[in-house]
Amino acid sequence: MENTETARSCTNCGVMGAGKYCNNCGNNFTVKRITTPGILHDVFHFFTHLDKGFGYTLKQLIVAPGTMQREYIEGQRSKHQKPFSMFFICASVTALVRYWIDLSLTSYYHSANAGETNFFHQYMVLMHSLLLPLYALVTFLIFYKSKYNYAEIAVFLLYTVGMFFLITDLIAALRLVWPNVDTDYIELVSLGLYNAVTCLHFFNNSNKWVVLVKSVISMVGVYFIANFGQDFVISLLKH
Questions:
Q1: Do the Cβ atoms of 66 and 99 come closer than 8 Å?
Q2: Phi then psi for 182, rounded to 5 degrees?
Q3: Helix, strand, or coil (residue 204)
Q4: pLDDT for 87-122, tens place per residue?
Q5: Which residues of 155-190 are buried (b: 16+ CB within 10 A; e: fewer)?
Q6: Region class of 149: left (phi > 0), else alpha (psi between -120 and 50), else beta
Q7: Which residues have CB under 8 Å from 13's CB, separation 6+?
Q8: Dihedral, CA atoms, 100, 104, 105, 106, nearest 10 degrees?
Q9: What is the spatial distance between Cα 172 and Cα 182, in angstroms, rounded to a whole number?
Q10: pTM assigned to the model
């Protein structure tokens, strides 16, 4: 049967072709108008069918911490946000959120610390980026009997610390309701629990109790290194 389809120009790449999709770029020849129901459908689809990139990686870090990092290291990488970009996105979001929280506290409660405000707005991402190799070294030494090398532990921590940032955002938001609340202990407990679950799923071939103890030790080590770095930077800002 003779093909009577009329050739059309692709609106995406300009190549002529027939059928439903462009043979060159795969774009649909039929261009649908953008409508409000279509936008709402896209938003609903984004939140219910996250299948690639930042959204998918964030979802996996929430529902399958440790498993997500292990699968990425073992080769399932096409759907995930790259570790460095994930880390910097999370860190940048946290810097902005913390800066906004401190500004809100300054405006409404007059209780924000100027040094902390400057730190979270300008230096937090840089500080944690510089300290992350040390975090990875501490974790690598504590879990040195695992099958993972230093670089793989570093990737594991890029995702994990990135998630730490977002968790601390939620905890820091408590200060908007209770401006004088000390969130340090809440952060330590919350991050410790998340880290323990993450390590149990990541180092899943080791004894669970051994992993649990080592996760607590590594968490405390990383926490004190981070706090020392933060206090040091803030002290410099005050002079």
A1: no
A2: -90, 110
A3: coil
A4: 988 888 887 887 777 776 665 544 445 555 555 556
A5: bbbbbbbbbbbbbbbebbeebeeeeeeeeeeebeeb
A6: beta
A7: 22, 24, 25, 27
A8: 100
A9: 9
A10: 0.72
